[in-house]
């Protein structure tokens, strides 16, 4: 079943995907990096010397922020891989294209310079960085929340860099060491995602969330819910309609019990509301 599926995978043209990187997008990325560094620096300056800030608070904010960033990286990566198409206005070029390019040419990321690697993530992080800076610092809870958001967004920003290093043949020695002790995304761990049809281990900051999320069938469950609500087939644009549909049906057969239960619940609900509703495995 797996080999058949692999043969059907439609590969998008890597050259066309790479050409989608326009000067306008690059300018936006440079602006985002500058704005991001400014906002994070202002936050550190504001927290500095605040009597409510202690070492344990900082440590827990940084650790929780790391876990949250890993989870966010999984969600965003999953959305970019699974839904929408590269032809969509704005979103298609700026966000979906890099994910699709990465599946057909996984070394391209290692040729991207600092701006192309990190600009995207700085852009999406700006609203949260601004929020973290503007929160009141009047109580321990507010200070913690502000530190947590600031730390999380820092790790979100670092995600593509960690991801890039996981594809680099000979990363700097210290980076290689951090990968081996799994303090940042290790190459072997990330390889699991790069196995066709690219449907698991989406978390790419450090990857600590990948196993727990796989155990509860988190992403397949989310896909069921979205397909049920919209009729869209996951990965249709990335691997082609035929392969996507086949994968969707295969997944349904060997889904973890919790996913099956959710599916039955959803299908039951759909039928109760609307007799004869289109089944999620045969979307219109
Ligand atoms: Zn991917
Ligand atoms: Zn990768």
Q: What do you see in this structure?
A:
It is a single chain. The protein is mainly α and 284 residues long. Helix content is 70%, strand content 0%. It contains 15 helices and no strands. The longest helix has 28 residues, at 55-82. It is globular. Mean pLDDT is 84; it is low at 1-7 and 270-284. It binds zinc ion (2 copies).
* Percent in strands: under 5%
- Tell me, rounded to a whole number, the average pLDDT: 84
Q: End-to-end distance, in Å?
A: 25 Å
Order of helices and strands: HHHHHHHHHHHHHHH
Whole-number count of domains: 2
Chart the SSEs and their pairings.
Layout: H1 2-8, H2 14-19, H3 23-47, H4 55-82, H5 91-104, H6 108-111, H7 114-134, H8 140-167, H9 173-180, H10 187-191, H11 210-215, H12 218-230, H13 236-239, H14 241-253, H15 257-273
The structure holds zinc ion (ZN) (2 copies).
Quick gist of this model?
One of its GO terms (cellular component) is membrane. It contains 15 helices and no strands.
List keywords for this structure.
single chain; 284 residues; 15 helices; disordered N terminus; binds zinc ion
